[in-house]
Amino acid sequence: MNPAGPQSEVLVIDDEDQIRRLLRGALTTAGYRVREASDGLSGLGEVAHHRPDVIILDLGLPDLSGLEILRRLREWSQVPVLILSVRGQEKEKIEALDAGANDYMTKPFGWGEMLARLRVLLRREPAAVEANVAQFGPVTVDLGRRVVTKHGQELKLTAREYALLRLLVTHRNKVITHRQILRELWGPGAEAQTHYVRVYMARLRQKIEEEPNQPRFLITEAGSGYRLDTD
Fold it and tell me: Nearest CA to 217 among 164, 178, 181, 156?
């Protein structure tokens, strides 16, 4: 499929039926295939299972904010996102772009401009296919759904434990330094607090490993950091 041409797939995430109908009609006429979601969680599920070429996202959704959708999406996908919102303040635009949006339009909007912006996004170099599910031993990590299972049973991880595991999964089989982990999870001001990482790695091993004291997957690289070994 040519990502910049007809038959590219657009996912519309908007809770307004009328807006979705209008977008569906205009996009279909322009040659796009269209999927729809009326809330954030459904939208994330559509991305995980159908991998659209571009997303049109409203910020005012009934379950999760558009910003939260962007943050979750950018944990595992770089699919282009065009924000289409009634919110037109500069502060809101900056927040959305900082959270991972590629472009921003305000409602009401012109069809010609919107289609032109989509073409620009679709001309980007296509990213490699992203694996949003990782499996190692008895453990499965579904980044799209934020679900971790072991032997088929869901594990209860804290937000910080999940963030650490997600970071390791995203960079699996590569060493992640203590400094990188601290910067990603606690911010740049915590880069000297290496005991934070030791504490949370120990907690994660208790839940992930069959033998936490002899880890098979969550490997310590002495003097450097940690690595998730999935080979």
Answer: 164
The domains located in the chain, with CATH, are 9-122 (3.40.50.2300), 133-228 (1.10.10.10)
Q: Dmax over Cα atoms in the chain, in whole Å?
A: 61
Strand partners, 105: 84
Other CB atoms within 10 Å distance of the CB of residue 11: 22
Q: Rounded CA gap, 101 and 91, in Å?
A: 14
Give this prediction's pTM: 0.64
95: alpha, beta or left? (left if phi > 0; alpha if psi -120 to 50): alpha
Residue 96: which H helix or E strand, with range? Answer: helix 90-99
Beta strands 139-142; 147-150: pairing state = antiparallel
If one counts every other C-beta atom within 10 angstroms of the C-beta of residue 86, the result is: 11
Confidence of residue 104 (pLDDT cuts 50, 70, 90): very high
Nearest residue to 50 via CA among 11, 4, 80: 11
Q: Above 90 in pLDDT, residue 184?
A: no
